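Q: I'm writing up a methods section and want to include an example of the input and output format. Could you take the sequence below and give the corresponding predicted structure tokens, formatted cleanly so I can copy it straight into the document?
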Amino acid sequence: QVQLAESGGGLVQTGGSLRLSCAASGLTLSTFHVAWFRQSPGQERDFVATISRNGGMTMIADSVKGRFTITRDNPMNTVFLQMHNLNPADTATYYCAADRLYRPSLYAKRRGDGMDYWGKGTLVTVSS
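A: Here is the clean output for your methods example:
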């Protein structure tokens, strides 16, 4: 059974940092490109960051550029989202998703529609 499992969310103060993990089971994550999305209650899902299969290409949303970094450890079958200088606007449930194709130009436009696999999300809450 294919599963993506996010972890690392929690409550943090403004200016704090968190590192989210997306661990895969039932599939070889190195054969997939991976993206992070986030969604706040009542809001649409937004693209956050994406990384290619081998980690050679990344794209970060303008809203988090300079604060968030996406990396991957293929032997560990895991992708990470390092988040620094968090603020209340970053409060959301964060989801990772895997895609057989690398389509960063579409992830923001389609808000993740068409991704092959999704995790269930991890909640990040940033207090002011």
